[in-house]
From TrEMBL:
Listed EC numbers: 3.5.1.44
Keyword Hydrolase: yes
Protein's name in the database: Probable chemoreceptor glutamine deamidase CheD
Classification via HAMAP family: CheD
Ranges that cross the membrane: none
Function: Probably deamidates glutamine residues to glutamate on methyl-accepting chemotaxis receptors (MCPs), playing an important role in chemotaxis.
Cited PANTHER family: CHEMORECEPTOR GLUTAMINE DEAMIDASE CHED 1-RELATED (PTHR35147:SF3), CHEMORECEPTOR GLUTAMINE DEAMIDASE CHED-RELATED (PTHR35147)
Keywords (A to Z) from UniProt: Chemotaxis, Hydrolase
Presence of the UniProt keyword Lipid biosynthesis in the record: no
InterPro entries, per the entry: CheD-like_sf, Chemorcpt_Glu_NH3ase_CheD, Cytotoxic_necrot_fac-like_cat
Amino acid sequence: MSMIDIDKHFLYPANIWVAQQPTIISTLLGTCVAVCLWDSRAKIGGMNHYLLPLWNGDGLASPKYGNIAIHKLVDEMQAQGASPKRMVAKIFGGKTSQKGGSVAYSIGLRNIQIAKEMLEELQIPLLAESVGGEYGRTIKFDTESGKVYMKLIQGS
């Protein structure tokens, strides 16, 4: 199957996308984190894109929060036939360097931390990561192969 035949989906912040058919899910990350989950047997892949680490219980339990977005991604993948026992994860984003500010540093770091803690708690192996640092990233997740293509955004 060529790249031309594959569905494409751009994932905006605070969203989740799960695909049973071959799809390229792409997104753009700064301090946000994206978790890519893949079940190789079911060939189901999904990605979330969250802005903040923890929902504090006020207002809507939105996938803009890491702890909500990760659970919703696992649930949605299960609903489409994936098994958490077969899922593997890759995480990206969490930019931590910014001139003059420690807020971005702590948000990026906490976003990375919540992803790692929750994946460990859910017993989903983390196969790869590109997190932290001073650059944003663009990523493209191929749900058929489980591969993620990443590019650093210089000067972001």
